[in-house]
Amino acid sequence: MAKPRVNAVVVGAGAGGGIVAKELAEAGLSVVFLERGDWPRYDRHNDDELVSQRTPVLGNPYGPDDARYRRVVENPDGSPSIVLPSEGAYSNNAGCVGGGTVSYGAMAWRYMPQDFRMRSTYGAVEGSTLEDWPVSYEDLEPYYEKAEYEVGVAGDYSDNPFGGPRKKPFPMPAFPYNKEGKRVVEATRRMGLHPFPIPMLRNSVPYNGRPACIHMRSCVGFACPVDAKSGSQNTVIPRALATGNCEVRTGCVVAEVRVDDRGRARGVRYFDSEGRGWEQESDLVIVSASATETARLLLNSKSKLFPNGAGNTHDWVGRNLQGHGYVGAFGIAEDEVYEEAGPGATVAFCDFNHGNAGLVGGGLLANEFIALPYTFCEVRPPGEPRWGKAHKDFQRQNYKRVIRLYGPIQEIPNFSARVTVDPTVKDAWGIPVCRLSGTRHPYDQKLGEFMSGKAERVLQEMGAIRTWRGRLGLGLSGGQHQAGTCRMGNDPTTSVTNRYGQVHDIDNLFIADGSLHVSNGGFNPVLTIMAMAYWVSGHIVSGWKGSAFR
Questions:
Q1: Are β-strands 466-469 and 326-332 bridged in parallel, bridged antiparallel, or unpaired?
Q2: CB 295 within 8 A of CB 317
Q3: Is 548 a member of any domain?
Q4: Could you list the residue range(s) of the whole structural domain that residue 266 is in?
């Protein structure tokens, strides 16, 4: 069955898709938003740690659900394993209106200027596909600023000498340091480092009609009960709907982008919440479904001109899957450092993101979000019992005394870390599922060990009576920071889109999510995804010529 034609279909209502829909609708285009999940509601997903956290034990509250979704992950020996969304190997990103911005930690980092020119800065890395981005920090700076003001970021870079230049301060004041954060500040300053407040996509004061943060300890991994956390579901998507030009259809699973014999996207085929099949014709298609699902959709979109999937002429769709290895160290303080007020993470330092002798890139380090009791069960020094009385004693004695300094590292992309579609396994709608394969680049372990050592040294300076490091394995990276599978570039033979997210050879098909990232920086990627969505949208709006686009 066919629906009335519209100007644009946007697939996926997360960080990127919400912004694209808002920008196009405000420019006067008619937009249909297709989202596989539903609108999130706190009363359905409260702060029950076992049920409602983003990485839960008893389900997957923000979707997708275990009953209808699955993926195939290749084991080291090449054998396949079927995994469900609630299992870590699935590399899930939430399936609901707002996507991961509903339950994320909300750190709002701009990438550094060097992050956009990694190949020029460091040269080639053997066995990697490390390259420069086709856009620069200077290109994106106005769009970072727009995201910070329209979505809402609290921060203060006065004490951060490493960030790229900015024309305006943050729109909201930074959150204050907590007890733990103050100790990090004191220790790092003694060491000659440069701590500063973490920029956050949450309201430190009332902003844009939403209240200030109430500092619940159950913040990261959960929805906000008062909407103080800034996501696409409570900022840009309502603005898109207010134009009257945008319609959000929830419970809709997109099976393929339809590409005609002239090589143009003519719309999408999808299933609604009742399982009925539909075709939605459109002048433009913008895919923002996450690095794994965007690649899957393009690979499943086969046509006469693109028998291997839309945009996949040169076998780059699904390649270079990256997430973030999180590394750092744990320390036990002599006294209690715990504060009940959330989110817990208040201070960071970026002294080791670049300029580390003999290394490529680096990463930030920050004190961590509050670990609720069940999650804290995983925080144990090597050799410490993980069950029985000794396990419980450690939990009681140290829950309020453990300090964590952690952060994401700049992973090195490689061609073999990838998304394909499985030849036999299908989801509940009969659509071939993602098949994930490959590993991290071996270099990531070297960088991870370096960063963990730096974190441990700070904890020792803080007076920790016991410290231990986190270790990074070589398993495939993805997860909630997934990126890279439809990288942008100037050369169609080594990239999927041009510098504006426009798929090579299909001029009315665009991508606007982390798939575009050539490399993923040493930072949480969401603000860059938002800035890129504004950048892509600006190009679409400026080039819009009625029902045609070139």
A1: antiparallel
A2: yes
A3: no
A4: 2-543
Residue 102 CB partners (closer than 8 Å, separation 6+): 40, 62, 94, 96, 223, 229, 231, 233
Q: Report the DSSP beta bridge partners of residue 437.
A: 418
Indicate the pLDDT class of residue 547, thresholds 50, 70 and 90.
Answer: low
**How many folded domains does the chain comprise?**
1
Q: Yes or no: say if 151 and 201 are a contact pair by the CB < 8 Å rule.
A: yes
Per the CB < 8 A criterion, the answer to whether 41 and 391 are in contact is no
Say if residues 49 and 218 touch (Cβ distance below 8 Å). Answer: yes
Question: Is residue 550 assigned to a domain?
Answer: no
pTM of model > 0.90: yes
Range of lowest pLDDT (143-157, 189-203, 369-383): 369-383
Q: Is residue 208 part of a domain?
A: yes
Residue 301 sits at the vertex; the CA angle it makes with 295 and 303, to the nearest 5 degrees, is 140
DSSP assignment of 132-183: --SS-HHHHHHHHHHHIIIII-B---TT-TTSPP-SS--SBPPPPP-HHHHH
Which CATH number fits the domain that encloses residue 87?
3.50.50.60
Split at pLDDT 50, 70, 90, the class of 54 is low
